[in-house]
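Here is one chain, start to finish.
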Amino acid sequence: MRGFILVIIDEFKTVFGRAEGRIRVGSREYRVEFKSTLELSDAIAESLLLLALPAAMRCGGPLISAAPVSPRLLENIPRIQDLYCSWNAKLHPVEIRVPARVPATRPAAPDATCQAIAFSGGVDSFYAALQSPGSSLVYVHGFDVALGKHELRKVVSERLAWSAAQLGQPLLEIETNLREFSDRYLPWIFAYGGALAACALLLSRHIDTLDVSAGVSYERLQPDGTHPQLTPLFSTEDLAFAAQGYELNRVEKTEIIAGHPVVQSALRVCWENRGDEYNCGVCEKCLRTMAALEIFGVLQHYSTFSVPFDYGRLSRAMPASPNLTLFIDENLQAARARNASPELIGSLENELARAQSPLLRTLLRKPPRIFNDWYYRAFQCQASTH
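Its structure:
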């Protein structure tokens, strides 16, 4: 019989634009907070349930809370657990001791009548925003930019607010420290879907549907926190979640949005934020996005990258995960189809070969110290804090 550690949710509080609660994992205690200039709903119990679930599954559970939650969400928890377990061998099904809310629905909020899109200013979310011009845009502080990076957060917030205004779509912002908790128990690639749902549920006074943009196409599906089988399972009686955008891959979306003037002035794809730049221009994700824009002949119109595009740097780039090589392959196929410059095609071929090299991938996963020092000096990068 596996041992287990109790995971308990308690001490809830919601006051207008602030919601918080406590999650206890064995003897450890975490306080999770959410803040917004908007009035938050009282769905804090549901939010913390989604955050605590992976911790319970990692520690053996059970997961206990005295606060009642959405019957619809509670009914979906076994299916959520099945997906998590199939993706991560460190997670195991646990007992859920949480009561269902009666009545199932909360009193309807007068302004909760609109569709919203999860929005970070990247390719996928800009594509979604342009496809749904009447939607609100939801941005979460504390996901890809650390809360302590005040200047960068200010720049990002201002640029996204400008984009929303230009598109005529409201920007709804919320901030949270939840990663201080969630990163301890589940890799962000799996955790961020539930984390996004936790934040959106607290905005349910203002939205009734949240569309979550796909990062890949249907033909490239892989385990992911916003997988189309997982995302709808976060729905409650008050807020529905939907996965969208899987009909196209990242390069195809880039081609569609690349000529839009708002995108050209505000596109933000960087998650490493080296040097606290909006887009550092030297990380692998920046480089592959710049490569895609170069393929379509519009990179010169983009003002959001901090350094010029460098074919040599692209050739040496290494994605953070082997799963990300699919984006390099998509770039390469598009470059060949568009008869891009031989130099660009060659750089993409070199990048793909490096990314697929088992030896180099092993070294970069657990590099000897002397190799690690050389690698970071050679490419002038700093270890990511994420």
